[in-house]
Amino acid sequence: MKNNKLFKVFSVSLSLLGLLVLFSGFIPKDTIEKPKIKQPNIIYILADDLGIGDLSIYNENSKIQTPNLDQMAKEGMRFTDAHTSSAVCTPTRYGILTGRYNWRTPLKEFVTWGNSPSLIQKGRLTVAQMLKDKGYKTANIGKWHLGLNWTMKNNSPEFDHFSDKSNRLNFKEIDYSQPLKFGPLDMGFDYSFMIAASLNMPPYVYLENDKATMLPTDKTERNRKIHPFSSWIKGDIADDFKHEDVLPNIVNKSISFIKENANKDQPFFMYIPLPSPHNPVLPIAPWKGQSEIKSPYADFVIMIDDLMGTIFETLKAQGIDENTMVMFASDNGFATTNDLKTLRQKKHSPSYVYSGYKGSYLEGGHRVPFLVKWPEKIKPNSISDATICTTDFIATCADIIGYDFKDNEAEDSFSIMPLLTNEGTYLRDATIHHDKYGVFAIRKGDWKLIVSPNSGIMASGETKKHKGVSAEEILYNLKKDVKEKNNVADQFPEKVKELKEILIQQIKDGRSTPGKVQENDAISGEWPQANFAFKD
Q1: Average pLDDT over residues 230-253
Q2: Which residues form the Sulfatase N-terminal domain (predicted)?
């Protein structure tokens, strides 16, 4: 009897199962829930003043060996024609986070200081905010150098200058005991650990989640020297701040963040702007004295490469290497203050075959190493000769997560995903360069036009105001003249006209991407370097 009942129950169950299988074929596919594919983790590592010739993967005659970054290139894609949006650091950082050319802001030349207000304005979309809104956990760990809105003592007025040298050492009214009024946490970052500006610029305090980890109790000695070419400016310093430890601390914080967030359901985005190899050059043991050419700068680059290796190893050890996109770039070219004389004597060329250095509109000022690794998407040992710009980062991330920009967002950013995956078309047609003094250049194909260079620096690439007279326009064909020695503007007036018209249009339109015309930010005073764009 019992067996009979069991048989009946079993028969009914089989019948129901058969009906389910039969009718499942009629259930629309849209209603069947598919397993969610986790978005990739995204890490952007930005070196400071690292020349394209300082990586041995780029420079066959390099006297500095960078095996970890070379391996990154071999595992992913190496770009040979990548450019920063400016030849100095603050503007490039602005472009990376916002996808907008830096000269559209009130900062038309030079850089911000440790007490400058935020260059990124409230309401401006950043890549961190965009990714956070799409479910990413976001972190900023490193050198900020984009200005910060400090809390002031006794209701003192906030700083309102960006690059005023006369006011750069005024810190007495900053209330370090209070959080920033406007900082990375207000721009989409969930976590932040940083220094305010370059490692040679006060105040020398760590800021964790927009608040000083320790209040400054002293001032540094002015121009304290570690090497003849390595010093920093006198200013407020906290007891937990040692210049030599800043780079290792940033890397250790980055590794901790990776381990804490590696295998959670939520993807993460990390922006890691390194403070090095920018002056002061501070290699420590075991890297100090280890370079072939016995140069502190070369030691420092080797130290960076080794520490980058620890980050790459951490990703693999956590099992997230395959679905993590890592980008590595520099914020501009090599800085001549980093013992260029010794490097030349040792036959090491930090700008590789290019003319110019940091600050210059010449290629060595803004053509930088640019590596991308993402094993799930990018074929190993890939090389791209496409002309790209660091402003393209936010559009690339938008492409990954499926975000559509509003007209007032990422106005100068084009996704490089078509280049990384070899699918689709990269849409950047022209790239605008900008030098230390605000001189414009524009690149399209093999041609590069420098406009009104006599308002800034010499065509030789010297980063100082010149007293002589130079040509009103300088045109180079980079395919034939990669060292930029022969001005052919007189021979190709139509090309000069074409490039100048594109430059003027993209300045006036407030954007270089398709969309509604936008306003460039207002400035106080004149903007002489761009006057050519508004003449009748």
Answers
A1: 91
A2: 40-403
